[in-house]
Amino acid sequence: MIAMNSRRYAFRATGIVLRSMWHRAEGRFSLLVLGVWILVSLVSVFWTPWSLWWTDGYHVWQKPSMRHLLGTDGTGADVLSWLMAGSRTNLLICVLTVAVTAIFGLLLLAAMLARATIFAQISVVVIDALISLPTVLIALILAVPFGPSVAVIIAACGFGYGLNLARIARPQALLIARSGYVESALSNGARASGVFLRHIVPNIMPVLTVQLSISAGTVVLAESGLTYLGIGVQSGVPSWGHSLATSVSFINIYPLTVLWPGLIITCIVLSLNLCGDTLRDCADPLSNVQLRNAQFNSGQERSGQVRSGQVSSGQARNDQLNRVTTKGSGQ
Amino acid sequence: MSTSLNAHSGSLAKALTIRDLDVTIAGHSILSQVSLDIGTRARVGLIGASGSGKSMLSRSILSLLPAHAQAAGSIRLFNKELVGASDRELAEMRGRTVGMIFQNPASTLNPVMKVGRQIALPLRLHYNLPADERLRRVEAMLNRVGLPSSMLDAYPHQLSGGQQQRVAIATALVTSPRLIIADEPTTALDSITQLHILDLLVDLVDQAGASLLFITHDFGVLAHVTSSCYVMDHGRIIEHGNTSNVLAKPSSPVTRRLAQSAEELKFDNAHASLSQEGDNND
């Protein structure tokens, strides 16, 4: 019963959040760009205009034509095919980095909030010191034993952004840890882990949303930077950073080949940042009137009662209780 | 007066017995030599001025004192010693044997959690019930505090202050705890809502056969809710006995001063409303 209801609310709420994002220009732009990105990534798994390994030594650095829509690169391979295939690598890096950032950042935050541990007392200094390490340096250190790979990018960026996330979310999380509802939860027998997951994390969601979307944007940039330096994805694995790195030395002679991956990276980073911003506003039940009304109305529909301080009549209440129990036992 | 109360309550089993409780924070004494008894099914008041240590006492019963506080003495809850108990034992006791209602309902409810889930939380923590049974109990509890079932899906900010306090009461009572601590539960509410909430609380506590420790600084509220009371000042219990006796013949000067100020305030209010009526008649 509860599971069914919460699933219904989740669908409904997601629909409302997406719709309110769509009604805002920046939200519509970011949803469109991200939608196309995901679609192209999926398509590229099954189909690209040319095979990635097809090269034509007689037609290198071709301008865009009907045959090669975005031209060819220095090996005569089709630029569009490589960019399409690259989009799935970047999507994978993006999703995994956000997941690693969220998990690592929240674990750090939990450790920082834990009362009376030595780490909680020195954590701010430790984290400030670690934040000063550039992501590139962490990636370089990791690439020495493990060699350049997608995993190195994800680990280095997840580590760096996780530190950032914990540092930025800490003040708000501390305020919430001292709030009346956390005290009330403790007085009801909640353990520290329950308080963190049920009360602190949901209440710092706005900060988390923005930070994670910024991380998603930054890792797209970081991937191209690290790949350019030779510590990102291995050569032969398609990615936007790879496309950029292989053509950037010829930017003066064949600028168009560099333009495409650059343009895509810019668009994606921009839309990820905008997406985080609009998502924060639209997914907050306190600021999105539509969202909270819809949720409240759905409650009214279910019980067929209006909001009032009165107890419903006994019969109606029994009917409803019956209905609820029957539905529940059907689950 | 106090001996007669002790003789009376001594024959009953005790819900809570506090003996010589001392609480210090960073060398400062917050509570000293506090002793207090609550019989089963008794409604006991705790009154004192702001800063007299009332809330600290209620928090020390639940071991929810600030990080550096140190407690010494004895707190026995249904013959179980709480001073020095393990975290696991304390978590087991909180919300199950003792329910707590706080002062400001707006801040004691999680703003992004629906009312139904908040009330279900103590049940979820202490009892392993199937989801539909839990929902049924939460819904029944919500109805008992006078709120319609539709509010299960409401967020706290959609409710009025009185409704929020009803939700807080439902959360504290949903597990049927045997002792309820109410820390100034009506201070943040207007006088009509205050009366409704107090009557509701007393009804629910009596129906459940639970004991009540009612903390307040308001003599009117104290007389309405409790039969016996303790008066606190500067972290010490300075007087205790039958509520009506304490109010009518306060023995300590601090209690007298508290009662006197309450009277003056009542007189001022009455005077103000009379002169307002006079203005209206003109």
TrEMBL record, chain A:
Low complexity bias locations: 302-315
Ranges of residues in domain ABC transmembrane type-1: 87-276
Listed CDD domains: TM_PBP2 (cd06261)
Composition bias, Polar residues: 316-331
Keywords: Cell membrane, Membrane, Transmembrane, Transmembrane helix, Transport
Region of interest called Disordered, as start-end residue ranges on this chain: 301-331
GO biological process, one term: transmembrane transport
Signal sequence extent: none
Record's keyword annotation contains Transport: yes
Domain of life: Bacteria
Coiled coil spans: none
Transmembrane segments: 29-50, 90-111, 118-144, 150-169, 207-231, 251-272
SUPFAM superfamilies: MetI-like (SSF161098)
Cell compartment(s), UniProt: Cell membrane
Gene Ontology annotations for the cellular component aspect, listed alphabetically: plasma membrane
Main localization category: membrane
Membrane topology category: Multi-pass membrane protein
Assigned protein family: Belongs to the binding-protein-dependent transport system permease family.
PANTHER family per UniProt: D,D-DIPEPTIDE TRANSPORT SYSTEM PERMEASE PROTEIN DDPC-RELATED, OLIGOPEPTIDE TRANSPORT SYSTEM PERMEASE PROTEIN APPC
Protein name per Swiss-Prot or TrEMBL: ABC transporter permease
TrEMBL record, chain B:
Keywords: ATP-binding, Cell inner membrane, Cell membrane, Membrane, Nucleotide-binding, Translocase, Transport
Record's bilayer topology term: Peripheral membrane protein
Gene Ontology MF terms in the entry: ATP binding; ATP hydrolysis activity
Record organism: Bifidobacterium aquikefiri
Location(s) in or outside the cell: Cell membrane
Protein name: ABC transporter ATP-binding protein
SUPFAM superfamilies membership: P-loop containing nucleoside triphosphate hydrolases
InterPro entries found in the cross-reference section: AAA+_ATPase, ABC_Ni/Peptide_Import, ABC_transporter-like_ATP-bd, ABC_transporter-like_CS, P-loop_NTPase
Family from the record: Belongs to the ABC transporter superfamily.
Alphabetical list of SMART domains matching this protein: AAA (SM00382)
Stored Gene3D superfamilies: P-loop containing nucleotide triphosphate hydrolases
Record's keyword annotation contains Signal: no
Primary localization class, coarse: membrane
A GO-annotated cellular component: plasma membrane
Stretches assigned to the ABC transporter domain: 16-259
Domain of life: Bacteria
Family matches, as Pfam families: ABC_tran (PF00005)
